[in-house]
Design brief:
With about 180 residues, the chain is an all-alpha fold. The chain contains 5 helices and no strands.
């Protein structure tokens, strides 16, 4: 298989993985908020969210993660010099953070299935932005590679994080009002 095909498959499965991570936490938010409903609605919604979360996690998100990692490792085996590049080392650090994010999200999935609601919907909204920050960082690292000005990159990363937090606060206020 050619390197560009491997790279294309890596990108396709990475997009699928992120889509699954973004959507699963939205489902967690709705699942958590459903607990505020009257008993009959809460029961129906909870059962439906458990089914949706399970299918999304095990049919899309986790297989996409595995395939992203498989094709990423394959690329590194094809071009081992990538491992010596600082941008790749930083990218791989973010990949490890994303794996931690993935498995913490899996723990939330299991908790919700067992009616353990340890996160508020606001906390889950903040959690959802963690994957966004990793995505922004990884895309900029891969596209800009060594041309990235680290000071501007760091400032930009924190600007995005602050912007997301402000957006969450504004959304929360609008929802209450």
């Amino acid at each position: 298989m050619s390197f560009v095909v491997i790279k294309s498959l890596h990108i396709i499965f990475m997009v699928s993985w992120f889509a699954g991570l973004f959507y699963i936490v939205r489902l967690f938010i709705y699942h958590t908020e459903a607990q505020q409903r009257e008993n009959a609605a809460r029961q129906v919604l909870t059962e439906q969210f458990i089914i949706m979360e399970k299918k999304l996690w095990w049919i899309i998100t986790t297989p996409a993660m595995i395939l992203t990692l498989l094709f990423g490792i394959w690329m590194l085996l094809e071009v081992p010099a990538y491992l010596q590049m600082p941008w790749m080392q930083i990218k791989l650090t973010f990949v490890v953070l994303l794996l931690v994010y993935h498995f913490i999200s899996q723990k939330i999935l299991f908790d919700l299935k067992n009616n353990k609601f340890n996160w508020s919907s606001t906390g889950l909204r903040v959690w959802n932005e963690g994957a966004t920050l990793v995505l922004v960082a990884v895309v900029f690292l891969v596209v800009m590679q060594d041309s990235l000005n680290w000071i501007k990159g760091t400032i930009g990363f924190f600007a995005v994080a602050i912007g997301l937090m402000i957006g969450i606060k504004m959304y929360k206020r609008l929802r209450k009002g």
